[in-house]
Amino acid sequence: MQHVDAAHLTDEGDPSDNQRAFRRALGQFATGVTIMTACVGDRLAGVTANSFTSVSLDPPLVLWSLESKAQSLPVFREASHFAVNVLAADQVGLSTRFARSLPDKFSSVDWVAGRSGAPLIAGVAAQFECARAAEHEGGDHLILIGKVERFARFEREVLLFAHGRYGLAVDHPVADVGRRTLVETGDPHPLDDFLLPQLFRAYEHLSAAFEQHREAEGLTINQSRILACLAANPGSSIEALSRLSYVGLATTEDAVSVLLAAGFAAMRPPAAIAITSLGRSRLAGIVARARSFEAERLARIPAADLAALRRALAALGKDG
Question: For 100-172, where are the E strands, in sequence order?
């Protein structure tokens, strides 16, 4: 098959021949992150899902899919209702918690029962209480369609998931056209003074510019994140690496598989992973490149300004 953009092609083929590559391709589509909940009697179910989407406004229908082997499947099939909790930007911990198999996922989680009893989680960006309208078998997943009976929206930044990593929504540079027009007329843009959008724009710009250095070391951004976490946390499980690196569980599994095959990591019984000497050498190469890259990019900023920036960022990273 010929491609118009062959120079940037990284994966292609039949999904059945390479499921990991297929999953990476699906990861190019950015989504929000939700926790789906349901209740049957005293049994609660909750699972992280990014398959949620709207279907219809009239009637108000939404759908999502659940793996057929999921432990929570019986509760979702028996429940007449389910709730959609759209996670906010500061709820990565909840996402990773409900993505795992735990005996009591709701312990220490702040929630209240909705109209149907389905848990409504505190601090989210939006909630939808749904009556189960239909279900369909879809390969290795069950597709659930719900009719929204009640919704709520909160003024919070949403959590996103793309490229196997958690992220946040920032304005595209194209959106700056309107801002520049206002600046040229002397009128301030209402978002000009907000720090978070500026920080994320800077991060995205620098990360994209550093990508060629990661590629030169033969690692993707996810693999390099996992490798760095292994260096700092030897003997971690895949679940722990996912939490520490803010990378999705499935993507972490893929990255670990590549690192193991390359000899950058090794398994420790029963299910722990450790970085190898070869992995430390490769990580040292990335760190050296990062140090040189940062020095080059920051050279034009006065040392006093950099010191003030580091102090401010350190303060922002502390609780309280």
Answer: 111-113, 119-121, 126-138, 141-153, 159-162, 165-168
Residue 144: exposure state from Cβ atoms within 10 A (0-12, 13-18, ≥19) = buried
Of the candidates 149, 127, 129, 136, the residue with the CA atom closest to the CA atom of residue 77: 136
Choose among 261, 289, 259, 288: nearest CA to 275. Answer: 259
Residue 264, CA atoms < 13 Å, CB-side half-sphere: 25
Q: pLDDT tens digits, residue range 216-247?
A: 888 888 899 899 999 999 888 888 898 888 88
CB atoms under 10 Å from CB of 256, counted, come to: 23
Q: Are 48 and 33 in contact (CB under 8 A)?
A: yes
The residue among 294, 291, 265, 268 whose CA lies nearest residue 280 is 265
- Structure-token pair, residue 292: 């040189």
177 token code pair: 């056209």
**Are 254 and 164 a contacting pair, CB within 8 Å?**
yes
pLDDT of residue 183: 46
Confidence category of residue 182, pLDDT binned at 50, 70, 90: very low
Q: How does DSSP classify residue 187?
A: P
* Residue 247 per-residue DSSP state: B
pTM, whole model, 2 decimals?
A: 0.71
Residues comprising the chain, all counted: 320
Going along the chain from its start, the domains and CATH numbers come out as 31-160 (2.30.110.10), 179-316 (1.10.10.10)
- Are the beta carbons of 62 and 54 closer than 8 angstroms? yes
